[in-house]
Amino acid sequence: RSNAESRVKELQELLSRYNYEYHVLDKPSVPDVEYDKLLHELKQLEEEYPEFLTPDSPTQRIGGSVLEQFSKVNHKTPMLSLGNAFNEQDLRDFDKRVRKAVGDKISYICELKIDGLAVSLRYEKGLFVQGATRGDGSVGEDITANLKTIRSIPLRLNKPFSLEVRGEAFMPRSSFLQLNKEKEEREELPFANPRNAAAGSLRQLDPRIASSRNLDLFLYGIGELGETGAETQSGGLDLLSELGFKTNKERRKCESIEEVLQYVEEWTEKRAELEYDIDGIVIKVDSLSQQEELGTTVKSPRWAIAFKFPAEEVVTV
Ligand SMILES: Cc1c[n+]2nc(N)[nH]c2nc1OC(C)C
Prior knowledge:
Blueprint: H1 2-23, H2 32-48, E1 72-74, E2 84-85, H3 88-102, E3 108-114, E4 117-124, E5 127-133, E6 139-141, H4 144-148, E7 163-170, H5 173-185, H6 194-202, H7 207-211, E8 216-222, H8 233-242, E9 252-254, H9 257-270, E10 278-285, H10 288-294, E11 304-308
Bound molecules: ligand 5U1.
The site of the ligand Cc1c[n+]2nc(N)[nH]c2nc1OC(C)C has 13 residues, from strand 3, strand 8 and strand 10.
């Protein structure tokens, strides 16, 4: 019995690591069949010894019950939306406003703007306890069970931190195409785009359906950055990675608006190569103290802006 307990612990650690390697690092160290075998062994042991079952066990990703409806979640700090820029001049104007307010010693960080839906995840002492949609920015829906099915979301962090993190849930393009193929075969209405497919999947009341949709998530922010000791957005993203979160590796520090424009130009060309849709680039003042100085308007930060790509012109043949 005692070695059953140690075997359960060992399997939970092992499977969490294998899951991290596969879904966050995209570098599995064991074949899928090995992972499945160990997961099956853990499921059996947890059934035989339910007292050893923990909420962060890899077997707990797909919750049991189908919900009647989602309950509401009040966001402690509002989930802000972004002001938009549509051309070079808009970006230069943004840069001027920033320099006017905090002076010329600034650096930016550019991040891909994933075309998905914004979600927030809350961790208590390292354990994933609640996840919610952005909603209207102040009140969202509790979609914890559905977010648990996203394999790249850690159910327990590497450190017992209590914090709230934010990111964009999305559906990879290949999964979107496959899902629509299956829908067409079932003569069901297909989703218009991966963003709608991701939103529709996270709004399923049955977590088993969400789990089948192969959703993913990139984290981009920490609710209260200050609490973690991070002093910059780029440092915050590195911290998120250290804690076991999936962050987008295409981010780049830019020391001038010229470098920002280069990055925007580069990704305007390259975005079709990505495995997921992006609808723009997010440019942020990197220093958190300068972000504080700049503050926010009612709905958007003054220290960030979204460069939006022109809507895809539909090629009619
Ligand atoms: C709405 C949003 C969306 N995104 N996407 C990224 N990559 N960063 C980011 N930041 C956001 O808002 C913060 C600037 C508050």
